[in-house]
Design brief:
By secondary structure, the protein is mostly helical. The protein has a single domain, classed as Orthogonal Bundle (Fic-like fold), CATH 1.10.3290. It is built from 7 helices and 2 strands. A two-stranded antiparallel sheet has the order 1-2. The longest helix is centred in the first third of the chain and has 14 residues. The chain is globular and about 40 Å long. It starts with 16 loop residues before the first helix and ends with a helix.
């Protein structure tokens, strides 16, 4: 079998500081957070977007900024429900499932929306999944035209609904 692996584009400034600030504001608004992004949030987004590949520790570091104290759901009983979606139960396999998602995203085998949906369906962290999933989506969008940033809220819910169907 002949498989072609495409690497994501080299890290480069994807958005201006103003555009990134707007992205963070929109991402926070989806979570009901109506304030200016903090310096720590801005720096975490910039750092994440500069990475060549994404690892679980990269996501953990990002989540600790946007949702401090909310770990990866690797223990039994670390269960989450978001609206009508019940994520897989917390267990050590969450890390393996997340790693599989990242492996495909890092080599470009999944489209950004598909990676985002897989990530949200897994809901790997106790909190911060929406914001970390959206920055992962933005990271995969490098080198591609971005839709207007105001699309985020409708995209988020419509995509997840369509993915579940």
């Amino acid at each position: 079998m002949n498989c072609t692996v495409t690497q994501p584009p080299d890290p480069s400034p994807l958005l201006s500081n103003r555009q990134l600030t707007r992205f963070i504001q929109q991402s926070n608004l989806i979570e009901g957070i109506a304030r200016k992004p903090t310096d720590a949030e801005f720096d975490a987004h910039k750092r994440f977007l500069s990475l060549y590949q994404i690892t679980i520790p990269d996501l953990e570091a990002f989540v600790q900024v946007v949702a401090p104290g909310k770990p990866l759901r690797t223990q039994p009983g670390m269960n989450v429900r978001v609206g009508s979606h019940v994520a897989p139960p917390g267990c050590p396999d969450i890390a393996a499932q997340l790693q599989a998602i990242l492996d495909r995203a890092n080599v470009g085998w999944t489209a950004p929306w598909e990676t985002h949906c897989q990530y949200q369906m897994l809901h790997p962290f106790l909190d911060g999944n929406g914001r970390s999933g959206r920055v992962l989506w933005l990271w995969q969008q490098r080198g591609k035209p971005l839709p207007p940033l105001l699309f985020l809220q409708s995209f988020y819910y419509q995509t997840l609904s369509n993915f579940r169907s």
